[in-house]
């Protein structure tokens, strides 16, 4: 930390000199690096940070959503999951997942991602192996609670970490690629789970149990790799020793400061951390994320069941047909992330995704042909999942300050966990095979997201107009900082 906080003269000697911008609104900087060298530095970050967090998030998604595949592979019968027991197993995960997000995000900032994120990954991998030996419904429920407590800090920690390394109009593509690795790979987790379930009877262990055992072992391996390859925050003064040079690290910190003036960490106080709770916009982002994850989790947990019971596919086909819609979703996700970064827009991307999800959900539930209904799955999965990184970018572009970022990441992803609880309950067994009430609930969530984006857009436009007249400093930042809508 001391190295990065050197005097201005020492800083400029290594990185760049500062000059006033033409409009006098903020300082610009002239770097010693060529454009090609700058791209190379950012590529180092992409290769190390985005890829690793994406792969580990893939394990996280697989480990929390593989219940649907295990359920139709024999878990429901062996654990006597009658009535609401399956829904209970899915939703108890989210109680500690929501409650522990804020303290876990603070802990990630204080002790560093390398220790925090890699250790909790190893621990939840061990819990997954334990789930493979769960003898009954009660033990499985308890293990799901522990899993939720351990995973609570991972996703918001990653969202926060990524936001500290990139400029406002670089994060859309990075969030998309991060989530693509997780969402698309976890979709193929259905095919992996189908293959693992074919180990039925090996060493006297049921096939669905092998799903948890093998996937848990893979998660532990990723967690161990994360300990050696994770990077910290750009201002922590440690990263360049094994990842970037001093000069490159200082350049990263300086360009972030030039973009939004919040690269350095303020001292922690509970007041500074909790003050953003008074900002209504923060809860708008959280509500959009709740709506989005309600749909994504509902599809993740129940799509195999819908394909089997509602559309008439066999168990094996249902497990495998989950993957193609998520592959298409990955393409849409990256395309919308790229478009949003290039043209500096966020709200219209969210609205586009939600309209796509509404059309897809309507086709799934209110048409007759299996082909058309399955096409609806493509639209619903693409629209809902693409909105996860889109909402993350929307939030990241419109806040300033390290602890505000930490609070916003925790609150937004915490509401995503509440969406997971809702998604665990919207598709009820008594509504089979059409599941119309669940589909209507998902459509309502998509419509609500559109409404919230429209309200926030009006506010952003008014605030930006006031800033243009010199009546307001947006988010208390530089005179040139503006909301992105």
List keywords for this structure.
485 residues; mainly alpha; Growth Hormone, Chain: A; 21 helices; 2% strand; disordered N terminus
Q: Could you characterize what this model shows?
A:
The chain is mainly α and 485 residues long. It has one domain: Up-down Bundle (Growth Hormone, Chain: A), CATH 1.20.1250. The chain is 73% helix and 2% strand. It has 21 helices and two strands. The protein has helices at residues 8-14, 35-65, 67-78, 85-92, 94-99, 101-111, 113-131, 137-151, 154-165, 171-187, 189-197, 207-229, 246-260, 270-274, 280-310, 315-320, 323-343, 347-366, 370-397, 402-425, 436-468, and strands spanning 16-20, 27-31. The protein has a two-stranded antiparallel ribbon with strand order 1-2. Strand 1 and strand 2 form a beta hairpin. The chain is globular, with a radius of gyration of 23 Å. It starts with 7 loop residues before the first helix and ends in a 17-residue tail after the last helix.
